Amino acid sequence: MCKVKEILKEKLTEEHYKRLTALDNPRMHEFVADAIELTGAASVYVCTDSEADRDYIRRQAVKLGEEIQLNIKGHTCHFDGYNDQARDKARTKYLLPAGSDLGASLNSIEKHSGVEEVRSFLKDSMVGREMLVLFFCLGPIDSDFSIPCVQITDSPYVAHSESILYRGGYEQFRKIGSSPDFFRFIHSEGEMENNVSKNIDKRRVYIDLEEDLVYSVNTQYGGNTIGLKKLALRLAINKASQDGWLAEHMFVLGAHGPGRRVTYFAGAFPSACGKTSTSMLPGQTIIGDDIAYFKKKNGMIKCVNVEKGIFGIIQDVNPTDDAIIYNALTNPCEVIFSNVLLDDEQKPHWLGMGSKLPTEGTNHSGQWHEGKTDDKGNKITASHKNARYCLNIADLSNRDPLIDDPEGVPAGGIVYGGRDSDTWVPVEEAFSWEEGIILKGASLESETTAATLGQEGVRTFNLMSNLDFLSIPLGRYIQNNLDFVNGIEKPPLIFSVNYFLKNKDGKYLNDMADKLIWILWAELRVNGDVDALVTPTGLIPKYEDLAELFKKHLNKNYMKEQYIEQFTIRIPQNLAKLERVEKIYTEKVSDTPQIVFDTFDEARGRLQEARDKQSDYISPFDLE
Ligand code: SPV
Ligand code: MN
């Protein structure tokens, strides 16, 4: 018997050995055997796609104290360590083989020493613990989009989260036979104290692009540990760039137009800019809220949701603004809350939930009371600003019927939006795919909010809202996006949206609910139902079309003065934005394609010409 099989046979019970070897995949077997040797796991549980195995994981999470059973059926709560509440960007690195260069903006470590370091932290990390081996599929099952994945973890919380967020992949592995083409993730929480990872200073997330393999250790927070989420996105961006498709940090939404028409939109927004709430727009249907793959099929661009669940920010989810999610969070269905406040009756509470919060309870800091501070003197809020909920989209009443379609859905439009108080109009169509990619997606910025560390209102560059996850140089990523629609007769239209325009007194010019109108206008544009006005920056709605949409869908009388204030083309701000973004592509990116600079030049030329002919601020009624 070969060494691999020997290791497996020694550690796995007969039942679990059978489950693993029923998948005849030497590369996967080697991966598991190596993990057993490395981590010294006491036992191994191999999960199939069965409900019984999912149930085992759920029970283990509670039994081991990683989740607390709440009073509503299916609800549990998990706490991450006080200093383990978000993605650790600084310690997430690409393992860089000799001779390769990812550009200065991607965080990397020389491969040999990186592997040595992370493996030394994983060494014996599962002694006395059970190793879970799980199989999932990115994208729908049995689809051209499917990417099989194997996840090894000692955390039933991570396994439970993945079983909510991803489609089971055990049967998919059976189908791929001995193919080496799959993603691999190994995670260990490391040493624990009070049910949380203790050695946060040794928290590491290291990514091996050559091997499609990610190591994660000494952390629990989902963004660092749920392999199929942002860790797989990094592997997928690299794979997509080699194979000519796109992996994007985007929601996918079915926008419902006149008659029974459904037009699908995908959209990218940096954190806390309305991405999940756009994917959940009232009266529309959701495919996904976080990650989408795009492929060319039969002359069309099709997209899928890589996931089947939502790991969403819970802050400000309330019955008025997010009725469907709020309903799921307060009724029996499978939900993992994380880093919320639990009162003494085990009821979860969070900031912005629309009702008064208790003044004491248990949260990520342990026993909590109003006014509690940490050892640095920072006030600890009732729930963490990045507290989350994890649930199945299948449990939401607005799920789109095509969510699991292996063909994907046709992408009618792409939307890019950030938090922008003074530059972009609420909605605008790009003149072309190229202009959309460069002037909207690759020019995306977002203003920091009070919720993030540091100064408020600082614009941060975040191309396609994918900057954190890029695994290839920025210029190459942009070029892939540009080239993607080659040979496609009618590429998706690209739009920018801006929900955050303010007037001079700092007051928002729009209600939150108005975003529905911008998407429904885009829906009409994709289908050629309405004309648009040409501005120096793109194509904007005509007043009459918006007034009709506002009346019909929100029962609002949209006034001309509002339209003028919102859709005035702000030339100085647009020029300043071009300058800021161009500076980044000149100074920080070494492989910017020339077409990016040419497109910036053209855009600048149009703005300057309009300013010279008219003025700095051009009302939409004065467009020529
Ligand atoms: C995001 O931050 O974009 C998320 C959550 O979707 S995380 O899993 O942390 O990436
Ligand atoms: Mn995300």
Describe, in plain words, how this protein is organized in 3D:
- This protein is of the alpha+beta class.
- The chain has three domains: 2-66 and 87-243, Phosphoenolpyruvate Carboxykinase, domain 1 (3-Layer(aba) Sandwich), CATH 3.40.449; 247-308 and 402-622, Alpha-Beta Complex (Phosphoenolpyruvate Carboxykinase, domain 3); 311-395, Phosphoenolpyruvate Carboxykinase, domain 2 (Beta Complex).
- The protein is 31% helix and 23% strand.
- The chain contains 18 helices and 35 strands.
- Strands 1, 4, 5, 6, 7, 8, 9, 12 and 13 form a nine-stranded mixed β-sheet that branches. Strands 14, 15, 16, 17, 18, 19, 27, 28 and 31 form a nine-stranded mixed β-sheet that branches.
- Helix 4 packs antiparallel against helix 6 (156-165), helix 14 packs across helix 15 (543-554) and helix 17 (571-587) runs antiparallel to helix 18.
- The protein is globular.
- It binds sulfopyruvate and manganese (II) ion (MN).
- Sulfopyruvate (SPV) is lined by residues 87, 222-223, 229-230, 271, 290, 311.
End-to-end distance, in Å?
79 Å
Class computed from helices, strands and strand pairing: alpha+beta
Q: Got a strand count?
A: 35
Largest sheet: 9 strands, mixed
Specify the number of helices. Answer: 18
Mean pLDDT: 96
- Rg result: 25 Å
Poorly predicted runs are none
Bound ions, cofactors and other small molecules, one mention each: sulfopyruvate, manganese (II) ion
Helix percentage: 25-40%
Given this structure, which CATH class of the largest domain is correct?
Answer: Alpha Beta
What CATH architecture of the largest domain do you see?
Answer: Alpha-Beta Complex
- At CATH level 3, the topology of the largest domain is Phosphoenolpyruvate Carboxykinase, domain 3
The domain tally reads 3
- The outline comes out as globular
Strand content: 15-25%
